Amino acid sequence: MKLEDIQDHWETDSKIDRTELGEESLKIPQLHSKYYKMYSAERLTLKKLNSDYKILYKTKYEYYNGSLSQEELEENNWDPQQLKLLKSDIPVYIDADLDLIKIKQRIEIQEEKLNFLESIIKSLTNRGFNVKAAIDWVKFTQGQ
Question: Looking at residues 104-108, what average pLDDT do you find?
Answer without folding.
Answer: 98
